[in-house]
Design brief:
alpha+beta, 4-stranded antiparallel sheet, Alpha-Beta Plaits
Amino acid sequence: MPRYLIEVLHDNNKQACNEAIRVFKTTGSHFLTNADWGCSDDIHKAWIMADLDNKEEALFIVPPSFRQKAKVITIHKYAFESVKESFKDHKV
């Protein structure tokens, strides 16, 4: 199953931080309640990692009011033995 890093941006002010955290915590979603936050370093984003079927499903984890600014990134781990194999995944 693919693994995704979901990055959710919010505005850079105390009210926006508090609201984002409140929305995430009150959703009841395991993914959202375990998000990691960068606000204390002035990086106003939350990150969630999830194993899901596709990017659309990953985006639907994000509360509707934050979806437009969210990024869903497919992530992989490569075994040391298969480093050469990893190059086939690169588009550049």
